[in-house]
């Protein structure tokens, strides 16, 4: 079972527990097209869209994984369905896409999963890791140490 330990440090003005509280559980993420689409484009001698990079926030309040809609559109992905999403602002119908999520620098395996396109408007945070993915792992949040562990 791959294990990924995160200990925020080297911040000039904040201790690790404060950093974990301020920034949350962040992972580097690469969002790309599914392998089957990459193969089809390669076979047709068409260029592959550039991988989108940023941060993913582990969000135990999110029922499913979400990715910034503009990131998914830059990959030229087509919606495979729709889902009704609930937030404090009410319900909204959002597009669902099949995308590949990779987590560079971690032992977490790349995953091809359905993701909901959303408007995060969070700068470098382009994805939320929801309970649909978290149900397959062990998550340990160690507040006093300012660390977390994620194992698949």
Q: Compute the gyration radius: what is it?
A: 16 Å
The helical percent reads 10-25%
The quaternary organization reads as single chain
The spatial strand order of the largest sheet comes to 2-3-8-4-7-6
Q: Structural class given helices, strands, pairing?
A: alpha+beta
Shape: globular
- Major β-sheet, in short? 6 strands, mixed, barrel
The N- to C-terminal Cα distance equals 5 Å
Order of helices and strands: EHEHEEHEEEEHEE
- The low-pLDDT segments are none
Number of helices: 4
Number of strands: 10
Mean pLDDT: 91
How much beta, percentage-wise? 35-45%
Question: Nutshell version of this structure?
Answer:
The protein is 18% helix and 42% strand.
Protein described:
The protein has 152 residues and is of the alpha+beta class. The protein has helices spanning 16-23, 35-43, 69-74, 131-134, and strands at residues 3-6, 26-32, 52-58, 66-68, 81-87, 90-102, 111-118, 125-129, 138-142, 147-151. Strands 2-3-8-4-7-6 form a 6-stranded mixed barrel. Strands 1-10-9 form a 3-stranded antiparallel β-sheet. A hairpin with an 8-residue loop joins strand 6 (90-102) and strand 7 (111-118). It is globular and about 50 Å long. The termini are close together.
Summarize the SSE layout with pairings.
Elements: E1 3-6, H1 16-23, E2 26-32, H2 35-43, E3 52-58, E4 66-68, H3 69-74, E5 81-87, E6 90-102, E7 111-118, E8 125-129, H4 131-134, E9 138-142, E10 147-151
Parallel strand pairs: 3-8, 4-7
Antiparallel strand pairs: 1-10, 2-3, 2-6, 4-8, 5-6, 6-7, 9-10
List keywords for this structure.
152 residues; 6-stranded mixed barrel; 3-stranded antiparallel sheet; 4 helices
